[in-house]
Design brief:
It is found in: Cell membrane. The protein folds into two domains: 9-203, Up-down Bundle (Growth Hormone, Chain: A), CATH 1.20.1250; 216-416, Growth Hormone, Chain: A (Up-down Bundle), CATH 1.20.1250.20. The chain is built from 14 helices and no strands. It has helices at residues 16-47, 50-77, 80-101, 104-107, 112-140, 150-200, 217-230, 232-248, 254-261, 265-287, 296-316, 320-347, 354-383, 385-406. Helix 2 packs antiparallel against helix 13 (354-383) and helix 11 runs antiparallel to helix 12 (320-347). The longest helix is centred in the middle third of the chain and has 51 residues, at 150-200. The two termini are 24 Å apart.
Length: 416
């Protein structure tokens, strides 16, 4: 038996199954980003149409948002490990199909329209699998560590995810240059197989039994939403993330800053794109020893407010290094809110509802990312790039002020 204490920075990582879980989280995040970045670059070379790049994320987001609630319903009633394994197999199948679509012997018989339709169809298939994978993964995590390590495990799982978000895009560029697009997809397929192996090393967990009556699908999904909307700390935690990313996110229009405002070109864009994840990873490393959960709600509001301020300064900056620092701070502040939100989502939902609550959270997060990217581009076109980003930061601060006024009683809540 491995002994864990809440003061042990590495307490969660001393549990073998949690190690397998976070290693898989790192690997699948990096792997899917390798596929996304290399595929996007290849599509742009084929079509020379930036709209094709926007459709990559949208093709995955539509089925993910549509199916996440059902995926959460299933995760609450079925073996989570099996759901993860089947979802990974579907994602693996999608990557194999993508590889085949780009083989000359097959491409020669397909028109570009059919080829693109096949690619986006495969992306929708992967998005469908992620709609089941995401809530099952989120709802499995609390069963891998004791309750007193929830904050520690949330910090480590987020850190491994952020590490994957840094390594994936960077490695994608090197792979594309060194071995080409086709061989990059072979690497992706191999890494997905390793992910399947890591999940296989985790024991099956019992499906939680509730004393409440068994609900039909529609009522079950409604119950997930009802829990979120009646549990104030869960609702406000998710909403703060939704609106800060929806209005304050800048990742989608970083190419405009790199090319036209900061004038640092493609190489500078790579640094700008990585800065938020680097800031987040460094902050999460600190939080493994000093978790932000003691005065959780105060820290949550301060973090989101800091995110808004850093966004405003970034919007107005014409200095590359200042812009890098501000983007790093947006990632740092966001990581604090992520740790607190993940801890809240582990503590407050009952075991038999974790999948559905995780699905609602996933819908909020996915909506803020994809719709936020669309909102950034639309406002930049209507108002100009700098005013639109600054406005997003200001709106974030207004949201924080509104939530502060409505949630003062949450300052007494203790998560640790």
């Amino acid at each position: 038996m491995v002994q864990q204490t809440s003061n042990d920075t590495f307490a969660s990582l001393r549990i073998p199954e949690f190690r397998y879980f976070v290693m898989n989280s790192f690997l699948i995040t990096a792997t899917l980003l390798i596929q996304e970045v290399t595929l996007g670059y290849e599509l742009y070379k084929i079509t020379h149409d930036p709209l094709m790049l926007g459709l990559v994320g949208l093709a995955e987001a539509i089925p993910f948002i549509a199916l996440s609630l059902f995926g959460g319903h299933l995760a609450d009633r079925r073996d989570k490990k099996s759901i993860l394994q089947w979802s990974l197999l579907v994602i693996l199948l999608g990557s194999v199909i993508l590889y085949l679509v780009f083989q000359p012997s097959i491409v020669s018989g397909l028109s570009q329209t059919v080829r693109l339709a096949t690619i986006y169809g495969v992306l929708m298939l992967i998005g469908t699998a992620k709609g089941f994978y995401s809530p099952a993964s989120s709802s499995l995590k609390p069963f891998l560590v004791p309750r007193e390590l929830y904050a520690n495990s949330a910090t480590w799982s987020s850190s491994f995810w952020q590490a994957g978000a840094i390594v994936g895009p960077g490695l994608a560029g090197f792979l594309y240059s060194w071995v080409g697009f086709d061989n990059s997809l072979i690497v992706v397929i191999g890494l997905l197989a390793v992910c399947y192996l890591l999940i296989s090393l985790i024991d099956r967990k019992p499906v939680p039994v509730s004393n409440e009556p068994v609900l039909g699908l529609r009522e079950s999904l409604k119950e997930g939403f009802r829990f979120v909307f009646k549990t104030q700390i869960v609702l406000y935690a998710i909403s703060l993330d939704l609106f800060s990313v929806l209005f304050g996110g800048v990742v989608a229009i970083l190419p405009v800053y790199a090319e036209d405002i900061l004038r640092v070109g493609a190489e500078g864009l790579g640094f700008l794109r990585a800065a938020p994840s680097v800031g987040a990873l460094l902050t999460m490393a600190y939080m493994t020893k000093h978790p932000p959960t003691h005065n959780a709600w105060r820290n949550m509001l301060l973090a989101v407010a800091g995110f808004g301020v850093a966004t405003i300064v970034f919007a107005l900056s014409t200095n590359f290094y200042l812009s890098l620092i501000m983007l790093g701070l947006t990632g740092a502040f966001d990581s604090v809110s992520v740790i607190i939100r993940q801890t809240i989502l582990q503590i407050f939902p009952p075991d038999h509802m974790r999948g559905r609550v995780a699905a609602v959270n996933g819908i909020f997060v996915s909506s803020s990312n994809e719709i936020g990217a669309f909102e950034s581009g639309l406002l930049a076109r209507l108002l100009g790039t700098v005013p639109s980003v600054a406005l997003g930061g200001v709106v974030t601060l207004f949201v924080v002020a509104y939530v502060y006024a409505k949630s003062k009683e949450l300052f007494t809540v203790r998560l640790s």
